[in-house]
Amino acid sequence: MLLKEKHLPRYTIKDYERWQGDWELVEGIPYALASPSLTHQRVVVILSMLLQLQLEEKEECKDCVLTIDTDYIVSEDTVFRPDIAVVCGNKDEKITKTPKLIIEVVSPASRKMDEEIKPLYYAKEGVEYYLLVYPQERKMALKTFKGNGEHLSSLWRELLNLKQKKVVS
User: What is the mean pLDDT of the chain?
Assistant: First the structure.
C-alpha cells in the first residue's frame, strides 16, 4: 500500500452533515451506502410496522421511538445509519442516545460492515440487542451485548418474537 494511514483525510460530523448522498462515518473515514433493494425496503417496512404496533401497546415503551434510516451519532467522527432503531428517551432529531435495539437488513454490499464493524461499536456503546436480517437466506440472527442473552426481558422477548411472523415472502 502506497498511502500510509496518516496521509488519509479524517472527517468529522460537521463535514458529514454537508455531504450529498448516503454515508456512514467510522473514525473519520467515510463509507458510501448502497441504494437499498426493493426486498430490503419491504423487510424494513414490515419489521417497522410489527415493532411499532407492539411498542404502542407497551406502557414501559411510552418514551421509546422507532426510527428508520436515521443517523446515530456515536461520536464527533463516527455516525451510523441503522435501518431500524428503537431508542428511548431521545429528544433530538438524530439518534444521540444509545438505542436499545438496532436492526440491519444485511445485503452483500453491507455484510462486512453489518457483521464485523458495527457490532464492535454497538457493543461498546451499550446497545442491548442487534438483530441482523438476511432476506436472501430467510433468517435472522440476534446478538445481545449485555450478558449472555438469557436475561432477555419479557418485553424484548415479545418484541423480538418475529420468527413466528412472516417477514419475507
Answer: 86
